[in-house]
Amino acid sequence: QKEVEQNSGPLSVPEGAIASLNCTYSDRGSQSFFWYRQYSGKSPELIMSIYSNGDKEDGRFTAQLNKASQYVSLLIRDSQPSDSATYLCAGPGETSGSRLTFGEGTQLTVNP
Amino acid sequence: KAGVTQTPRYLIKTRGQQVTLSCSPISGHRSVSWYQQTPGQGLQFLFEYFSETQRNKGNFPGRFSGRQFSNSRSEMNVSTLELGDSALYLCASSFGSSYNEQFFGPGTRLTVL
User: Fold this and answer.
1) Of B108, B52, B55, B53, nearest in space to B85 by CA
2) What does DSSP assign to residue A1?
3) Can you list the pairs that B51-60 forms with residues at least 24 positions away whose Cβ atoms lie under 8 Å?
4) CA separation (Å) from A50 to A53, A71, A74?
5) Which of A98, A101, A102 is best to mutate for the B interface (most B CBs within 10 A)?
6) Distance from the CA of B113 to the CA of which of A22, B10, B15, B32 falls in 20 to 30 A?
7) Measured between CB atoms, which of B56, B59, B90 is closest to A99?
8) Residue B83: phi, psi to the nearest 5?
9) Cβ separation of B33 and A46 shorter than 8 Å?
């Protein structure tokens, strides 16, 4: 059973639109979640961390954590072509023995 | 502050050989985690070291091993390479517990022929 699952992609949005990326998790005790951005051929880059229920905003990015429904999301406002990348959701892993378990990733394309 | 560094960046090996990859964490970070990334399996956790001790291990065969030195630098070793070991190997450092934010290095691209 996967511990962190992301909605299937790829996702394509026009420039200036809001991109919505979602992730669900299985461990109700999970306290911290992270969103990473990975450009093709590069390593993952941490863009957002969220530790408590509710929203956390940083510039054009908003992370949302809903512990009751066990999902975490990332909203990208005013999407730019430079936001085109794969976005990875990560949370504490348990059954796999890992400390961070990553979702499969959602490939986002922002069309000019 | 300098980021996480990994060496070498690219490696080509043949089946049966062994390989050692190196990772230097961000200054002050004591935890180093290793991940394997492949197109089919995504990012898979290998192991985590904290203060020279392996604190956690993923579901990989014993051919994959690692260690951490007193300066927090870490190495991972893969023995008897198989074609399926071709992947991007990523090292991530964090301040303490792996529940802290993890910062990734550029990775080592390993190709096994």
Assistant:
1) B108
2) -
3) B55/B31, B55/B98, B56/A97, B56/A98, B56/A99, B56/B98, B57/A97, B58/A96, B58/A97, B58/A98, B59/A96, B59/A97, B60/B36
4) 8, 12, 10
5) A98
6) B32
7) B56
8) -55, -35
9) no
Dump pLDDT digits (tens) for A91-105.
Answer: 876 644 447 889 999
> What is the per-residue pLDDT across A1-47, written as a single tens digit (0 to 9) for each?
568 888 767 999 999 999 999 999 887 777 789 999 999 999 999 99
pLDDT value of residue A97: 45
3-state helix, strand, coil in chain A (%, to 5): 5, 50, 45
Among partner residues B33, B90, B104, which is closest to A99 by beta-carbon distance?
Answer: B33
Beta-sheet strand order (sheet of B74-78) = B5-7, B19-24, B74-78, B64-68
Q: How far apart are the first and last CA of chain B?
A: 37
Whether A97 sits inside 8 A of B58 (CB atoms) is yes
Please list the alpha-helical segments (H only) found in A32-91.
none
Identity of the amino acid at B42: G
| CA geometry: angle A78, A80, A86, nearest 5 deg | 110
